[in-house]
């Protein structure tokens, strides 16, 4: 058995954890408890840990780093950072924060023994709860908290003893989740995110016990069953199983977060530090903008993640390469503030892009070729020192996005600066919107509103790249799915570290995003504009028609796989077998509560005559309603409806 956790053991843990999640991916997907088609927890956890696995693939020097951190601490930070940037769904974000909490504890440890592991799990619990706006017990949060408590109870410094105690306590907490969330009990399943975390802890036990099978693993190699021994069919809504209101029981989300306020109670925009509403800022009387949290976010890796590292031994290299600064490339001194022929070479290129990059020499060679085809005034400097080396990249381009994406593909860019050249509005004054959507029609609609569109179920890195691609200093994120909101908030935090002001309006449907973009006005202050967009989105009730993926018991009664479901604000209200009939009943249910404007977005599988039929039904039944209809082309959902 291992006495201490070293870098090689962390790699084996990451390998084993990813292998276990892949082996149980479908099982965890099936633990979700809602029948609509969406991203699933097992898939999201696999994608998140795959990003972490890629992050730890490179070599790590065994000697302490510049901050005195050991190799295991540096590798753990890379693992946590990779998980954060690759996080998918609420479950992925929470697991990335668990890894971050462990990495923070390891950074201060000389060696990682049992006591350090117990402290790391306590820190991980704090980080996981802090990542969720409204923590809910009976989720992955309860499981990690139990793991930390079980590890602490051992009062042992033996690594294997503490790891086994944590895994055992997590397994017991997982078994209790149906008692804490009625929706899990009704479906006869345990929490999906918690199940994934238990697999990761089991993988850790196998590493520190050097091949010993955790005693909890065999007991959890099957899905939980209900009391009569017949496993109920699981139903799925990705990472967000919902409880239909029963009396005064609130809606809950399985990965530790209650859903945002419904359309009836308004919608609060969120920034990296909290909701962007009047009086909800940092609490500092000196904070000029109460709608934006002024508390700075420190990326994983601490100040080094956002500080220019020395490129050579020359004093000038330690300076921030800003106005008038110079860096060195071999024997040649290069002035980055005024590249040769700057005034003439600016012609035809709208932006100056500059960032620091951690990447291998081979990757930088490919990067030079890619950037050379995108723009001019290209300078990539560095001595090759470090593992991986740090480079300073500078280029003039017409489109910011590809230049930053090329850096992300090559390595880890940071301290990203985008400066409009002569004749362009300064970046900090520009505003932009980033929207998550799928379907050619919806993409065209949002792009027509001036928004940058990201495909459904994005990672933190993909949203962050889209924010940088806008070249704007103030950006609104519209996730259009409760499952993507945690990812959007993580991307907002990362963007803040790069000096970009980002607010998240927690839209849960594309029709809410359309309503929000319709009231956008760049003439008013950014905070006021965000609040107006949030109010417009919150005033838009949304409906959906989709096909049930499995048998389930809903508030509207039982449904079978293949049935058509009509949902209003995320709850099943209509069940049927005919698309036209279900769509009529859904619209009548929504308009029965009032409304003046109806927006319909037809899915990719909508039959040719559906639009004409729905127009006729609305005009006959609700003659005073204004109707807008679009071909969205979105997958999975045959119809999206918004009522304002």
UniProtKB/TrEMBL annotation:
InterPro entries attached to this UniProt entry: DegV_domain_contain, DhaL_dom, DhaL_dom_sf, FakA-like_C, FakA-like_M
Every DhaL domain range: 8-206
GO biological process annotation, one example: glycerol metabolic process
Residue ranges that the Swiss-Prot or TrEMBL entry lists as coiled coil: none
Signal peptide: none
Region of interest (Disordered), residue spans: 229-289
Superkingdom as given in the UniProt entry: Bacteria
Protein name, entry field: DhaL domain-containing protein
């Amino acid at each position: 058995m291992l006495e201490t956790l070293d870098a090689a053991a962390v790699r084996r843990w990451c390998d084993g954890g990813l292998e276990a999640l892949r082996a149980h991916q479908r099982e965890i997907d099936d633990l979700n408890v809602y029948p609509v088609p969406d991203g699933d927890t097992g898939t999201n956890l696999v994608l998140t840990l795959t990003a972490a696995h890629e992050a730890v693939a490179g070599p790590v020097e065994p000697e302490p780093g510049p901050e005195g951190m050991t190799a295991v601490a540096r590798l753990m930070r890379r693992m946590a950072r990779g998980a954060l940037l690759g996080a998918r769904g609420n479950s992925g974000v929470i697991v990335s924060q668990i890894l971050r909490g462990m990495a923070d504890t390891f950074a201060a440890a000389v060696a990682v023994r049992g006591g350090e592991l117990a402290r790391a799990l306590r820190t991980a619990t704090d980080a996981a709860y802090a990542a969720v706006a409204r923590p809910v017990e009976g989720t992955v949060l309860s499981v990690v908290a139990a793991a930390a408590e079980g590890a602490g109870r051992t009062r042992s410094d033996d690594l294997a003893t503490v790891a086994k105690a944590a895994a055992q306590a997590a397994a017991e907490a997982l078994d209790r989740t149906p008692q804490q969330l009625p929706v899990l009990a009704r479906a006869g399943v345990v929490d999906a995110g918690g199940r994934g975390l238990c697999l990761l802890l089991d993988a850790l036990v196998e590493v520190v016990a050097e091949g010993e099978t955790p005693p909890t693993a065999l007991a959890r190699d099957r899905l939980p069953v209900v009391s009569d021994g017949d496993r109920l069919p699981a139903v799925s809504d990705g990472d967000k199983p919902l409880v239909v209101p029963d009396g005064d029981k609130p809606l809950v989300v399985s990965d530790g977060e209650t859903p945002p306020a419904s359309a009836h109670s308004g919608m609060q925009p969120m920034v990296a530090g909290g909701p962007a509403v009047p009086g909800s800022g940092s609490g500092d009387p000196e904070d000029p903008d109460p709608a934006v949290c002024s508390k700075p976010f420190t990326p994983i890796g601490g100040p080094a993640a956002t500080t220019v590292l020395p490129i050579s031994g020359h004093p000038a290299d330690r300076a921030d390469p800003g106005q008038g600064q110079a860096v060195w490339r071999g024997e040649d001194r290069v002035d980055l503030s005024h590249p040769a022929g700057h005034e003439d070479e600016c012609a035809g290129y709208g932006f100056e892009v500059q960032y620091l990059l951690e990447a291998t020499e081979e990757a930088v060679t490919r990067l030079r070729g890619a950037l050379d085809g995108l723009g001019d005034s290209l300078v990539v400097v560095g001595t090759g020192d470090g593992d991986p080396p740090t480079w300073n990249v500078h280029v003039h381009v017409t489109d910011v996005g590809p230049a930053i994406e090329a850096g992300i593909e090559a390595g880890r860019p940071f301290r990203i600066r985008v400066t409009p050249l002569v004749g362009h509005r300064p970046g900090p004054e520009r505003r932009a919107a980033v929207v998550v959507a799928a379907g050619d029609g919806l993409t065209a609609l949002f792009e027509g509103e001036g928004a940058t569109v990201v495909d459904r179920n994005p990672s933190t890195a993909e949203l962050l790249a889209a924010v940088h691609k806008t070249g704007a200093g103030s950006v609104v994120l519209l996730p259009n799915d409760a499952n993507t909101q945690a990812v959007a908030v993580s991307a907002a935090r990362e963007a803040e570290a790069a000096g970009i002001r980002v607010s998240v309006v927690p839209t849960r449907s594309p029709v809410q995003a359309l309503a929000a973009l319709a009231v956008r006005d760049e003439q008013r202050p950014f905070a006021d504009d965000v609040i107006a967009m949030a109010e417009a989105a919150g005033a838009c009730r949304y409906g959906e028609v989709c096909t049930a993926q499995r048998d389930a018991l809903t508030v509207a009664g039982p449904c079978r796989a293949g049935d058509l479901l009509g949902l209003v604000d995320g709850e099943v209200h209509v069940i049927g077998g005919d698309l036209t009939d279900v769509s009529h009943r859904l619209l009548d249910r929504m308009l029965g509560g009032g409304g003046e404007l109806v927006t319909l977005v037809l899915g990719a599988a909508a039959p040719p005559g559906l639009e004409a039929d729905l127009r006729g039904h609305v005009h006959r039944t609700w003659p005073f309603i204004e109707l807008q209809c679009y071909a969205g082309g979105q997958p999975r959902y045959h119809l999206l409806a918004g009522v304002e």
